[in-house]
Amino acid sequence: MFRSIIVPLTIISIVSGCSTSTNPSTAPSNTPPVSSAQVNATPSIAFTPANISLTTGGTVTFAFGSVPHNVFFDNDPAGAPATIDGANANVAVQRTFPVAGVYNYYCHIHPGMRGTIVVGGVADTTDHSSPPVGYQRIDDRP
Ligand SMILES: [Cu+2]
After folding, report:
1. What CATH number is given to the structural domain containing 108?
2. Is residue 53 part of a domain?
3. Domain that holds residue 111
4. In the chain, which residues have pLDDT < 70?
5. Could you give the angle at the alpha carbon of 80 between the alpha carbons of 104 and 37, nearest 5°?
């Protein structure tokens, strides 16, 4: 009874997720969630990998290289971990994500430097086009 309902809904959500994606190469939805991952904040002004699919309660290690960066969750989604403020170089900082959701983060030192962490398999409806919508919003803050 339940299975006959759930399976068709799951297929519909997968198909619609693919059809609305403007840049499939950046979509993490097909990646199995992992319980821990590392994001490298590189001297080439990028978070790599830019997209991570994490299990609920999983941990991400942000590894900062020789060029200073920071990590802000601009839209302050419920359950977002604390920002990594300041100018961080040659350090690694861990953040845990206890609540399922889509967490976009930004380096406030370098406009356009951003990444996405999807927790608990939530559908990522983020606008991954450039310029990023979230970054412009924070710029507009008084
Ligand atoms: Cu940066």
Report:
1. 2.60.40.420
2. yes
3. 21-119
4. 1-30, 129-142
5. 70
* CA 56 to ligand 1 centroid distance, Å: 26
pLDDT value for 17: 39
What is the Å distance from ligand 1's center to 13 Cα? 34
Q: Measured in angstroms, how far is the CA atom of residue 71 from the centroid of ligand 1?
A: 8
- The CA–CA distances, whole Å, from 54 to 45, 60, 100, 138, 140 equal 23, 8, 9, 25, 30
The pLDDT, as a whole number, for residue 131 is: 54
Separation CA 16–CA 71 (nearest Å) = 31
How many angstroms separate the alpha carbon of residue 3 from the centre of ligand 1? 46
107 CB contacts (<8 Å, ≥6 apart)?
41, 45, 47, 69, 70, 71, 72, 113, 114
What is the model's pLDDT at position 81? 96
